[in-house]
Give the backbone structure.
Amino acid sequence: MRQAINRKWVLARRPGASLRPDDFRFIESPVPPLGEGKAMVRNLWLSLDPTQILFAYEGSGENTIPIGGTMRCIASGQVVESKLPGFTPGDLVQGWLGWEDYTVIDGSPQLTPGLFPLTKIPPGVAPNLAVGALGLTGMAAYLGTMDVAKPKLGETFVVSSAAGGVGSLAGQIAKIYGSRVIGIAGGKERCDRVVSELGFDGAIDRRTEDIGARIDELCPGGIDVFFDNNALPSMMSVILARMRPRGRVVLCGATQYYMGEQSTGGLDHISVIMKRVRMEGVYANDSGDRFPEARKALRAWILEGKLKPVEDVIVGLENAPSALMRVFEGANFGKQLLKI
Ligand SMILES: NC(=O)c1ccc[n+]([C@@H]2O[C@H](COP(=O)([O-])OP(=O)(O)OC[C@H]3O[C@@H](n4cnc5c(N)ncnc54)[C@H](OP(=O)(O)O)[C@@H]3O)[C@@H](O)[C@H]2O)c1
């Protein structure tokens, strides 16, 4: 019998100020025999998250990917062979797997320490949804919105990276609670789609429009909630100056920071103090105890047609680097996934 081949992307060098295709190398090797206490997962769907690039740099401790190491990401897959109690061929799983056809799991709840746990996908959940709207992306959108933003009827909710995975869900959840939702996204076409496809009440193109002037136009009474995924200092100061008293700011993502720009700028302390604004970070990775509740609510909203899990799907493992580059180019609409 012919031995199965594992195609995989390894880190060729530490990325510079922007990602390049030759930061990664595509290699093939035979799938080795499976050891006792291990199971082989055939990866199906990869989630391309801005955060995963952090592991390609030095400084992520035990999670730093060595040069020549397999690129890791949240993915879903199917167990194809098992010598691991509790896992049988056919089981669908999700967790930190890799940019490769096959990943060996050993039953540790977390292959990547401290991050999103490896779990079986509940029956009836599609493996793409499991790593998108019902994966870490959905968990961040749900926890940030429900725990920190606490959206209310008639309030004004502004979300950045509104065309992206987390932002598209957070804005839709706020709409379910009756808020008026304004999205900020890069590019006119993406802004148009945020309104026409996601049902947001307005959108601002952060690349070409004056954000302050557009907020004044679209949110004349001020902003109650700002759900931030970009961490752009210029955007934050414009927003903070327009917050209503007792407004809430959800610090969810810092995409500008991951590619080395790493400036959080000066905080508009006076606006935060005078308006008693509450700023709070959300970190879904370690909130596993809340995942069942979040998945139940998100799934119900999807089934009821209240929440649209928008996905941007690239097909083919060979395209993994370009799929990751799309999130840093702001080319994705919805959660960036790759179907192997
Ligand atoms: N806290 C948590 O627990 C948690 C969990 C999951 C994800 N996150 C974070 O949530 C954010 C969104 O994640 P996602 O997977 O849904 O990604 P995403 O929003 O689908 O994609 C990233 C978006 O970031 C924007 N962007 C690209 N380059 C940028 C730059 N240099 N500076 C600022 N913005 C840039 C682009 O949108 P625009 O051009 O339209 O702005 C792009 O579409 C990320 O920062 C991620 O790390 C946090």
